[in-house]
Amino acid sequence: MKPGEFYQRDRRWHPAAYDKDYKTSVTRSPQYALISLQNSMSEITGPVFGHNDIDPIDNDLILNYAKPGESPIGERIIVHGRVLDENARPVPNTLVEIWQANAGGRYRHKKDTYLAPIDPNFGGCGRTLTDENGYYFFRTVKPGAYPWRNWVNDWRPAHIHVSVFGSGFAQRLITQMYFEGDPLIETCPIVNTIKDKAAIGQLIAPLDRNATIPLDTIAYKFDIVLRGRRSTLFENRLEGN
Amino acid sequence: MQKLDYLKETPSQTAGPYVHIGLAPGAAGFDIYSQELGWDIAGPNAKGERIRVEGIVIDGTGSPVKDVMLEAWQANADGIYAHGEHAGEVEEGFRGWGRVITDFNTGEWGFDTIKPGPVPARGLMTGVRPAEEEEMQDAYGRGHAGLRAMAPHINLWIVARGINIGLNTRVYFSDEEEANAHDPVLNIIEWERRRQTLITKRSERDGQVVYRFDIKLQGEDETVFFDI
Q1: A40 vs B122: CB contact, 8 Å cut-off?
Q2: Is A156 a catalytic residue?
Q3: Closest Cα of chain B to A90: distance in Å?
Q4: Rounded distance, CA B223 to CA B217, Å?
Q5: How far apart are CA B66 and CA B194, in angstroms?
């Protein structure tokens, strides 16, 4: 089979580069239009990762930085879901990476000086490969909201950053996952760089009681959709056409 | 009317200022993974010319952006990508993918790799054979089905605080003048002057080949970004 192209990205569904309410975007957004490229081998292919690249504990943020016998403070959660493409086909064996603040909204980063304390047993990053059905899961603690310098009194909703590769470099995506019912979602200038309410809804993970472990860990479900691929039926023109 | 039953792509969000925690935790200030990914693009066995690509990302005020993450994706010296859908073998250990972050103080970034070879252009990829040996490309992207190869290039993807959706661009090489002149992607950029923003200058430093690639996000001499 000849490799097919990815569906065109719907850039009205995604946030625009420039959004005055998210102030940092004002000087970091290109002014010229993007140049549209039909996919070549450079866009259709992308890096391949395997189980040699990561360790089995990497998807467990409750264990991967904790001292032996200790664990981070916070609401113990499972974040799980599937990586699919726009044709609803699973994306298997793809790398999913996450990072987040601790339960108090503090990041383990030398540039974060927020007064909420570091948790000695929490690093804040994880990674995993989807299985053959596109399924992934992480175990972590629910991150706290935190303040940031945008408007004077802006607070980010609780969120987990998510990075996904897919099978081609054109599918590369970084996004943020939010939690069902968080009242900060509605007012956040970063969330609202997305103009379509349905698109924002796609970033909000519902509570998933079916995946909760009784008396242990609560669960949220977050499915990720990457660009779909064309069928190659009409691409394979005959010689001389 | 029936509804199309495609799913919608998950919308992008900024990587934020703390992207390093997830994708380069050593730079954030802590050790957690047994190995971080993306520090070695080509591996020790790759043939071809060893090069360094480096630069700085500049915002609309002319200031360096100091919290950027860049990812590179490139073919080997024979123009083959390390991916099952591209026929051909690459050297053991050649991944073709790299990840770097800018220095927190200076904004400088750089990666060591090998210079990629020319990659088949669209026409060949989709099974179309060139009708003539050399077919020129017009400024509107038409007629490139007959072209045989793209000039050597490295694909770059750039994220940072304030960038809502990752920016795609390409690094071309100043010493590939002939190939660049026939490259189907450079040739769809209608404004010849803007093509220059993608062509890196070759120099040598302590015997090492260095290509300088400064990226201007906004304003005068803004780098060309692609919707791929």
Answers
A1: yes
A2: yes
A3: 12
A4: 6
A5: 25
A161 is catalytic: yes
Q: Chain B: nearest CA to A208, how far in angstroms?
A: 19
Catalytic member of A65, A107, A136, A178: A107
End-to-end Cα separation, chain A, in angstroms: 20
Cβ atoms of A125 and A107 closer than 8 Å: no
Provide the CB-side half-sphere exposure for A133 (13 A, CA): 7
Task: Compare CB distances from A31 to B75, B155, B219 and report the shortest one's residue.
Answer: B219
DSSP state of B48: S
Judge whether A188 and B43 are in contact, CB under 8 Å: no
* Contact between chains at A37 and B228 (C-beta distance less than 8 A): yes
The residue of chain A nearest to residue B83, with distances taken between CA atoms, is A45
Q: Is the ipTM of this complex over 0.90?
A: yes
Distance between CA atoms of residues A108 and A146, nearest Å: 13
Beta strands in B49-135 (DSSP E): 50-58, 68-73, 97-101, 108-114, 119-120
pLDDT tens per residue across span A50-80: 999 999 999 999 999 999 999 999 999 999 9
Choose the catalytic residue: A156, A178, A220, A229.
A156
Contact: B166, A65; criterion CB under 8 Å:
no
Distance (Å) from the alpha carbon of B209 to chain A's nearest alpha carbon: 24
Residue B49: what pLDDT? 97
pLDDT for residue B125: 46
Inter-residue long-range contacts of B127-130, CB under 8 Å, 24+ positions, other chains counted: B127/A2, B127/A235, B127/A236, B127/A237, B128/A237, B128/A239, B128/A241, B129/A239, B129/A240
CA gap B45, B101 in Å, rounded: 25
pLDDT in tens, B151-201: 999 999 999 999 999 999 999 999 999 999 989 899 999 999 999 999 999
CA separation, residue B142 to residues A41, A71, B137, B146, B225 (Å): 18, 59, 6, 10, 19
Answer for the pair B180, B151: CB distance below 8 angstroms, yes or no.
yes
Task: Extract the runs of DSSP E, i.e. beta strands, from chain A.
Answer: 35-36, 76-85, 95-99, 125-129, 135-141, 146-148, 154-156, 159-164, 173-179, 204-205, 218-221, 224-226
Q: Is A193 in Cβ contact with B22 (below 8 Å)?
A: no
- Asked if A53 lies within 8 A of B185 by C-beta distance, the reply is no
Contact B13 A42 (CB under 8 A): no
The residue among B9, B63, B142 with the most chain A CBs within 10 A of its CB, best to mutate, is: B9
